[in-house]
Design a protein that fits this description.
127 residues; globular; 2 helices; four-stranded mixed beta sheet
Length: 127
């Protein structure tokens, strides 16, 4: 996608605020498990939704990231979702659902996080 800019996690608040101050709107955020790290992208729209911009950063799976919810409450649900489903360690959430926004008490923990690696697709004894 065009208009996605790589940033450092510590730049998210300042760079995202620039979009909002310029009249942009927060749209959503997505998280992907890329084996060695997580990739997070926040999307903002401009010009009545006709132009989208993304801010993307990569972090280690055990690394903490700042919540954008102190700037706009619109990020609370998606940040809680990324925290629950991928284990993204979001700090300072304006509203923290404690892992139970989407998941029930007996649900699997971080169900979208890759927890294993496939080392071979060939069964033992196959040639």
């Amino acid at each position: 996608m065009e208009n996605i800019r790589e940033i450092k996690k510590d730049e998210l608040l300042a760079e995202g605020r620039k979009f909002l101050d310029a009249g942009g709107k927060f749209v959503t955020a997505v998280c992907s498990d890329l084996d060695q790290h997580l990739e997070v992208t926040y999307f903002f729209s401009h010009d009545a939704g006709t132009v989208m911009h993304g801010l993307r950063y990569k972090v280690a799976k055990d690394e903490e990231v700042p919540s954008f919810s102190g700037i706009t409450l619109a990020t609370v649900l998606i940040e809680n979702e990324m925290k629950e489903l991928f284990g993204l360690k979001v700090t300072d959430l304006a509203i923290d659902y404690g892992g139970h926004l989407l998941l029930a008490q007996d649900s699997p923990v971080t169900p979208l996080l890759k927890t294993y690696k496939v080392t071979s697709t060939t069964a033992k004894g196959d040639s």
